[in-house]
Specification:
By secondary structure, the chain is of the alpha+beta class. The chain contains eleven helices and seven strands.
Length: 266
């Protein structure tokens, strides 16, 4: 796995979140946040709000799972995107991509939510120690469906031997195996594809199948948009900076599963 670029280091750190075994959560959180800041510095400059996101766990009835979350609001990023994926297409995104449809905007957010879910750890039994969890926590291996989804994402940047049509087919199949074949998921899967960008020296990336626009570019173009009303209804105290953090980290996560653009030689 190539870790020589900011994208590669963030990809490696994110894939470690769901790995099995004894994991030092503080160390893992530091690795992810450092990699996020490194890529943000390259891609976003002073606009970044990624410092508001951390790696943490949440206890649910079916178990405890580790993933990306807002540090102060104490909510997982996929939960925010769960309510955001019915939001109206922001005017500034429409201005950047005039042919983008409402349905494609919703698909971008839905797929981003599923990627965050795929990168989470498998649920583990909740401890009875008064809510206190050890820094080193044993975790179960990824399920077959989750592992295949993570591998299909990683293959976009790491499997130069595979044609983009094969990468697309693998990703769509893995997404639906992991997330289930609901009508919304099936529609979203058909709206995405692994394509070579028209930008010079850019390798395959996760794109909208109709227009070829990279999902990362669509998401990052929404930075600074007001918090959608459907998100505020569920999270009334969410700040603009926290919403910007969700957008920034989502876009950078999508970038992490793209190869580093090739440089001119000579």
């Amino acid at each position: 796995m190539n870790q020589s670029s900011p994208r590669g280091r963030l990809r490696q750190a994110l894939l470690c979140v769901g790995e099995r075994g004894d994991v030092n959560e503080a160390g893992l959180s530091a690795a992810v946040t450092t990699a996020l800041r490194e890529l943000a510095s390259q891609a976003l400059d002073e606009r970044s709000r990624v410092e508001l996101v951390t790696v943490g766990a949440e206890d649910r009835p079916w178990g405890r799972s580790l993933g990306l979350r807002l540090a102060d609001y104490d909510v997982e990023l996929p939960d925010v995107l769960l309510y955001a994926d019915q939001s109206d297409l922001p005017p500034q995104v429409q201005k950047s991509f005039p042919t983008l449809s409402q349905e494609e905007w919703e698909a971008v957010l839905l797929v981003s939510k599923l990627i965050f879910m795929g990168l989470q750890s498998e649920p583990e039994p909740v401890s009875d120690l008064a809510g206190q969890h050890p820094q080193v926590t044993p975790r179960p291996p990824r399920s077959v469906a989750r592992e295949q989804f993570c591998q299909a994402l990683a293959a976009i940047s790491e499997r130069a031997d595979l044609h983009q049509d094969e990468l697309t087919a693998q990703l769509r199949t893995a997404l639906l195996n992991f997330a289930s074949e609901t009508p919304d998921n099936k529609d979203a899967a058909q709206r995405i594809a692994v394509l070579h960008s028209e930008e010079p020296h850019q390798g395959p990336r996760l794109c909208l199948s109709r227009s070829g626009v990279a999902l990362a570019k669509v998401v990052l173009s929404a930075g600074g948009c007001p918090v959608p009303s459907c998100v505020l209804e569920e999270f009334p105290d969410l700040t603009q900076d926290e919403w910007n953090a969700v957008i920034h980290v989502t876009g950078l996560t999508l970038m992490a599963f793209e190869p580093e653009p090739a440089r001119d030689v000579g």
